[in-house]
Amino acid sequence: MKTIFKNTFFSLLALLTMAACEKDEDKIYVNSIEPGQLIASEDAIVLAQEESDKIVLSLAWSTDNLVASNPEVGVPGGQLSMALEASLDENFSNVVETTENSYSKAYTGASLNALAQSVGAQPDVASNIYFRLAARSGANMEPVYTNTVAVSVTPYSIDMSHAFVLDNSQAPTGMSLYSSQSDGHYEGFLGVSGWYNFYLQEGDGHIWGAAPIDGNPFTLSDAENKWNIWFPNPAGCYYVVADVNELYWTALSLPALNLAGDIAGELTFDRSNNRWTLPFQATEAGTATIRLSADGSLYDSNSATDDAAATPQSIAFAQEGDAIMLADQPGDITVNIPSAGDCTLIIDLSDPAHWTATVETGGQEEEEAAPLIFLPGVDDLASGSWTFDNYLRLYDNATQSYAGVANVNSEWGYQIAIERDNWNDIYALAEGDAYAGTLLFKSSTNLPAPTPGLYFMNVSLAALTYSLTPVQTVYYSGFNDNWDLHTLAATDTPGVYTATVEVTGETPWGFQIVLDEAWSTTLGGGDGILLYQGVDSVPNIPFSGEPGTYLLTVDLVQATYTLTAQ
After folding, report:
1. What is the mean pLDDT of residues 483-495?
2. 205's torsion region: left (phi>0), alpha (psi -120 to 50) or beta?
């Protein structure tokens, strides 16, 4: 980012106010010979949406030593009011004005682009925007103007047809709502977990959250003290309406999608892909006619997130070209069946501007296991709260087995969550103790925590088992094709170990991190990631560096490693 205040900013002289005149139409302007009355950090800017958060332009001024262009008119005293004016016209016939209480203003790419749009600049075309400051010493006083500064600004076009769903940290999620008129009224279907937290971001970068009202997230706000927005408890498919003009949003929970017509069966919601699917056997290729409807529960500012207070509401679909749309009554929807045999009906709601009903050849593919599972509660005495910061990595998709090291320091025990920020879909205790046992989906009993310390954890969601083994000494082995155990030294950070490694020869088989002298727990991997070698498919960590001295750093809790030449 360029320095906002260049050296010339420190030579700012005065802005001037004006006194009342004998004639209302007379104006007293800043003396043109006074230098530095209003200064801009740039004279030409080409804006880009990917740099919308960066500061791209700064203006600065001062109100010291006010001087009027007419020496016979004194400068009025008292508290000044200031307004920054912007216009495409150097005569300021059409003005966008903002009240200012400080002596500088910084524009991000998004805010300058919005200003350019407000004054009438065309996207992707360079236009001069003229700035000046108006100062008044009283409500009835005519303003005194600074010099005019011209800045050439090339704005980018803003697509206001979508509102993008951001997660709790305001990172993109890939989900969005659609406004057919680009007027701030957005609609669409979202697949979410229970109590899912989010924000909405419009195409101009504007971020909306919930007004800070306890227990009721359905009033939108863009204020600095806004909260995140949150869904009710039921997970699954929601039809969402959000209106940033009327400052509300609603969530219609749809536990099922009813199917009638030539294809029969129960549709299943695929939350990660935001679609409903049904495998079926087609007797022949051709077309089929179906009808779709759903009965749901509407959550809004009246019900808040109270399930009992939610209002029953139904929706239906009809065909519109190659898409489907909402309708008052279920309409005939024609789908093409490409061939006889295994087929899958797919109701795809992921594109809020284009919902579709299609049939694909083949059955549903087996779903891949999630790459991580999370351990909320495992370190609440250290972190101060239950978080999703601790995790185990998948090492065997067939058995949905995960492993890793956790720094356990828990007051109330912990749970195993299958998705970040999803508090509903968790595994907890069926039977067992702090070191081994069985899991139960949505158990109300937390997994008991062992004595605080580092533990290697191994979890199978297919077998519903868990085990914990204390981590005491950590070794590395394999450099220079030497498979003796070499100790890594513990650091002040739990789970982080280091060693200086002298590479003098080839390391053809890579190296391993070993957690016990019996070699029963070894870690391989690659690309900076550690993986438990619980199955043969997990390789050793490759190394092809030159001979020399290296610092090996292993973070068992984050399951990462680095190897740095010294």
Report:
1. 97
2. left
Query: Alpha-carbon distance 153 to 191, whole Å?
Result: 40
| Region class of 126: left (phi > 0), else alpha (psi between -120 and 50), else beta | beta
Write down the mean pLDDT value for the chain: 90
The secondary structure of residue 182, as a DSSP letter, is S
E strand or H helix at 114: helix 109-119
* Cα torsion angle, 454, 441, 217, 238, sign: positive
CA distance 260 to 249: 31
328 against 61, higher pLDDT: 328
Closest C-alpha among 556, 480, 545 to residue 511: 480
Domains 7-154 and 372-469 fall in the same CATH topology: yes
- Taking only the tens place, the pLDDT of each residue in 313-326 is 999 999 999 999 99
| Topology of the domain covering 475-565 | Immunoglobulin-like (2.60.40)
Considering only the top CATH level, what class is 7-154?
A: mainly beta
Query: Is the CATH number of domain 372-469 1.10.10?
Result: no
Mean pLDDT (whole number) for 524-536: 96
Q: What is the pLDDT of residues 242-265, one digit of tens each?
A: 999 999 999 999 999 999 999 999
What beta strand segments (E) does 77-136 contain? 81-87, 96-100, 104-108, 127-136
